[in-house]
């Protein structure tokens, strides 16, 4: 299956726009708040979701949050944002225009090649409720974690992700809280905080995520191995698959076998590549930790152990860059995320892109270590005082 996969990826990239230009299409629904999604995410408490999106006003509330998210993304990337309906197999028309219209149609001008786009997905990965009765009052703490993912559709991978947790505290009368009379107060506070979170996430992403071209020259070759004169400082990372274009605009795809300061070892998977070629590689963010050992979080109890899976997921998303290793995570929810992306950008012939259509090759970034999460029950001891 290897050659057809690479050929399809190359076909998607071969008609891409001029180097340096990229486009973002926001998935216009929140991930993690549907009934199906909550079953797969044990840290998303149904009580929080019902407070936010339950009742007759729930759908409109979610649409308002999505519109808020899209507006913030448009302000952050005014020259890049497009509607999912503007993503197609080839470019149509010229120039950039955001067709922010619920009645948008396929093949309208301008539309943009899927290989030049990134899907942006906002979602809820945690929403919990903690209650502490104190006399006639209840102290309530509701932490909500939002995540933002930038996905490269033609490669079927997450290229940048960030998350943030905000804790909303409440002190309410017990009767008021238990009767539901305070639900509107809680709902308004949560929605306000989520809007602030969306803004913070987009602002942070704007500072970190900015796909750029890096010129690299192919300086040597030994069999299937090609040496480039740029390394980790440019964005090359061992185990990644990268795209490049030559002066004629022809696209090539490479596997990065090794990267160090000042050079990288590549293997051509598709497209033209010869010693002496100067190519433009596209990198989303700077990478300088490729020499760290790869570590993959795993759950000892299997996918059915929902609590341990949730903890492993949070660990993978929250770990900072200062760790002595780099993560090689497996997102157990990514299959559902891909479905959301394909459903939104439904003008693309996704079956021509095996990375999104469910066909996969061999994994090239095998981890050096596994971090196993095993759920255990702590012993409880009760000490009684002397009689």
Task: Name the features.
387 residues, alpha+beta, six-stranded antiparallel beta barrel, five-stranded mixed sheet, 9 helices, 16 strands, 27% helix, 29% strand, globular, disordered N terminus
Description:
It is a single chain. By secondary structure, the chain is α+β, with helices and mostly antiparallel strands. Helices cover 27% and strands 29% of the residues. The chain has nine helices and 16 strands. The strands form four sheets. The protein has a six-stranded antiparallel beta barrel. Strands 1, 4, 5, 6 and 7 form a five-stranded mixed sheet that branches. Strand 8 (212-222) and strand 9 form a beta hairpin. Helix 4 (58-76) packs parallel to helix 6 (183-208).
Weakly predicted, low-confidence segments: 1-19, 359-364
Question: Helix/strand-derived class?
Answer: alpha+beta
Using the CA coordinates, give the radius of gyration. 23 Å
- Can you count the helices? 9
First CA to last CA: what distance?
A: 75 Å
Oligomer: single chain
List the helices and strands and how they pair.
Layout: H1 2-14, E1 23-26, H2 35-40, H3 46-53, H4 58-76, E2 87-88, E3 112-113, E4 117-127, E5 130-134, E6 137-152, E7 157-173, H5 174-179, H6 183-208, E8 212-222, E9 225-228, E10 241-245, E11 251-260, E12 263-270, E13 278-283, E14 294-299, H7 306-318, E15 326-327, H8 334-344, H9 354-357, E16 369-373
Parallel strand pairs: 1-4, 2-3, 14-15, 14-16
Antiparallel strand pairs: 4-6, 5-6, 6-7, 8-9, 8-13, 9-12, 10-11, 10-13, 11-12
Write a brief caption for the model.
The protein is an alpha+beta fold. Helix content is 27%, strand content 29%.
């Amino acid at each position: 299956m290897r050659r057809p996969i690479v050929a399809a990826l190359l076909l998607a990239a071969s008609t891409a726009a001029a180097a340096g230009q990229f486009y973002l299409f926001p998935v216009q629904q929140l991930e993690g708040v549907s009934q199906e999604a909550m079953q797969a995410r044990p840290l998303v408490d149904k009580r929080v979701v019902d407070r936010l999106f339950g009742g007759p006003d729930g759908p409109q509330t979610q649409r308002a949050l999505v519109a808020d998210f899209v507006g913030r993304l448009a302000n952050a990337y005014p020259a890049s944002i497009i509607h999912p309906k503007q993503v197609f197999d080839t470019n149509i028309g010229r120039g950039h225009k955001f067709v922010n219209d619920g009645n948008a149609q396929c093949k309208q001008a301008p539309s943009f090649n899927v290989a030049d786009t990134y899907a942006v997905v906002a979602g809820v990965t945690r929403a919990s409720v903690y209650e502490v009765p104190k006399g006639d009052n209840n102290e309530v703490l509701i932490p909500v974690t939002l995540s933002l993912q930038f996905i490269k559709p033609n490669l079927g991978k997450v290229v940048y992700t960030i998350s943030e947790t905000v804790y909303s505290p409440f002190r309410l009368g017990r009767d008021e809280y238990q009767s539901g009379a305070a639900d509107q107060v809680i709902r308004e506070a949560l929605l306000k905080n989520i809007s602030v979170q969306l803004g913070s996430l987009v602002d942070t992403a704007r500072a970190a995520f900015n796909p750029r071209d890096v010129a690299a020259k192919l300086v040597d070759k030994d069999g299937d191995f090609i040496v480039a004169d740029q390394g980790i400082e440019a964005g090359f990372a061992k185990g990644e698959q990268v795209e490049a274009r030559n002066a004629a605009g022809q696209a090539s795809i490479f596997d990065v076998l090794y990267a160090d300061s000042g050079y990288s070892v590549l293997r051509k998977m598709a497209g033209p590549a010869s010693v002496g070629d100067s190519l433009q590689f596209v990198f989303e963010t700077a990478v300088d930790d490729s020499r760290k050992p790869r570590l993959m979080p795993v759950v000892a109890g299997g996918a059915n152990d929902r609590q341990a899976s949730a903890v492993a997921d949070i660990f993978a998303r929250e770990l900072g860059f200062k760790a002595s290793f780099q993560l090689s995570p497996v997102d157990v929810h990514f299959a559902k995320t891909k479905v959301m992306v394909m459903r939104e950008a439904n003008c693309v012939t996704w079956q021509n892109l095996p990375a999104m259509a469910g066909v996969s090759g061999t994994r090239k970034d095998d981890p050096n270590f596994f971090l196993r999460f095993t759920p255990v029950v702590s012993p409880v001891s009760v000490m009684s005082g002397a009689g």
